[in-house]
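Morning run. Coffee first, then this:
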Amino acid sequence: MNKSVGTILAAALASFALAGAAAAQTALSAQDRSDMQRIESYLQGLSTVRARFIQQSELGGFAAGTFYLARPGQMRIEYDPPVPYLYVADGSWLTFWDEELGQRTDVPIGSTLADFITREDVSLEGDVTVTGIRRVSELDEIEVDLVQTDDPGSGQLTLVFDDDPLAFKRWTVRDGQGLFTEVTLTEPAYGIALTDDLFRAPRPRRRERDD
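And here it is:
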C-alpha cells in the first residue's frame, strides 16, 4: 500500500471532467443502442448501493475499501487502513480527505467522473460519447467505452456490467497518458438505508492558539 494509490484515483476522478459540446458520434448498431437504453434505465433505477471494492493501477498500486452510492448526488469511497484516503460527494462537491495530513480538497462535482455516476438523469449521449460497446459472451459481460464529447483525447472511461441480469460490476479510467486505474465492486447490496453522515466529509481540526 502506498500514497500513489490515492493519487491515481484522485486523477481518475478529477480528470474525466464532463463538459457539453458537439462531437462526431461513433457508428452504433441497433443492438448497441438497445444495450445503451438498458444501461441508462438500469443506472437511473439505482437508488442506493453499498459494495466492497478492489482498486488496481497500471503502476502497481493496490487497495481495497467500501463504496457507497446514494443517487442522486452522493457517493463515498472509503479505503481500508492503512491507506488514509477518503472521497465524498455530497451533491455539490467532491471532497478528497487525507486523514494522515488532516487535509481536505474540494472540487465541484460537476467537473468530475463522480458527476456521471451520481447525476439524476444518466445519459450515454450529450456530454459523453460512446466510442465502443463489446459483449463478452464467455463472461456474460457488456463493456461500454466513453470519452468526453468535447475532449476525447483527455481519457477514457469504461463501464463493465454483468449482462443477465444487468448489474454494474467495475469501471476503468484510462488517462490521457494511457495509464489505467480499475475499480471492481464485490458483495453489492442495493436499495439499503444509508445515513446522511456517510456523505459528510471531515473537516480539518482548528489549531489551538498559543496562550
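The longest helix spans residues 30-45. Good start to the day.
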